[in-house]
Write a structure and sequence with these properties.
Elements lengths: L1 H28 L4 H23 L1 E6 L12 E4 L5 H9 L4 E6 L8 H5 L5 E3 L4 H17 L3 E4 L17 H9 L3 E6 L15 E7 L10 H19 L11
């Protein structure tokens, strides 16, 4: 049954992405604003999340939403990354437009990649690290000044449940450079949607939003260490079964 549900949800995403992407691309050619294009993309993400609830039995709850900065305040969101689910979910639950930092290879994915290539996002070549951060810093400052929140996964890739990747300081460097706070976010999506797994399981994914951390006058590595400390400690609270024998960092 789980395999059948997973196939149906994949089919649902494929069937819905084509018309939404075509509409978005056509709207972009006709001069639609970046905010309007984002809302179109967000609609497809909502369809995917709603489909996950109906077809897969995956629901979500959000804790700490009151910690988010006021709508007119810029921020860099630093999120735990266990699966594709939080990539779809974050724009659905956040009150502001988001700009992801993602690898440029995604631009070549039919329809999905073509569509996100028209959005105010930051696509980078991971092989060119210095040039990549320069692009993140330059475009990130511009986006933040326009009221768009920049979202990054500091571990860089999806990490298996119960494990921690290497937290890279690109997000904190951007925040310090732009003079905006960072918001740490823990997500236990691996409980239902394991990393690189086709079969998904029903259950509840919890998103825990931490208090904003001021970046002014901070060292990027030291600030990222604080972000990591909060996220990994929170992960142990959200998913204690994945961390046997541990009570915190």
């Amino acid at each position: 049954m789980a395999a059948l549900r997973s196939c149906l949800h994949l089919l649902w995403m494929l069937v819905t992405v084509v018309p939404v992407a075509v509409y978005l691309l056509t709207s972009a050619l006709l001069g639609a604003s970046g905010h309007r294009l984002y809302r179109m993309a967000r609609f497809w993400l909502w369809l995917s999340v709603a489909g996950a609830k109906t077809i897969l039995g995956i629901r979500y709850v959000v804790e700490g939403q009151a910690h988010l900065p006021a709508d007119d305040k810029p921020a860099v969101l630093l999120v735990k990354h266990q699966s594709t689910y939080e990539t779809f979910l974050m724009p659905v639950i956040m009150p502001r437009d988001l700009a992801y930092v993602f690898k440029k290879e995604l631009l070549y994915v039919p329809f999905f990649g073509w569509a996100i290539g028209r959005l105010d996002m930051i696509h980078i070549d991971r092989r060119l690290r210095k040039q990549a951060f320069h692009k993140v810093a330059q475009q990130g400052r511009d986006l933040l000044q326009r009221g768009i929140w920049v979202i990054m996964f500091p571990e860089g890739t999806r990490i298996a449940r119960g494990q921690a990747g290497q937290y890279k300081s690109g997000g904190t460097r951007l925040a310090i450079d732009a003079g905006v706070p960072v918001v740490p976010i823990a997500v236990n999506s691996g409980v239902c949607w394991p990393r690189k797994a086709f079969i998904k399981r029903p259950g509840v994914v919890t998103v825990s939003i931490g208090k904003p951390i001021d970046s002014v006058g901070r060292d990027p590595d030291e600030l990222m260490a604080e972000v990591q400390q909060w996220i990994e400690s929170e992960m142990r609270r959200l998913d204690p079964e994945a961390y046997p024998g541990h009570e915190g960092l």
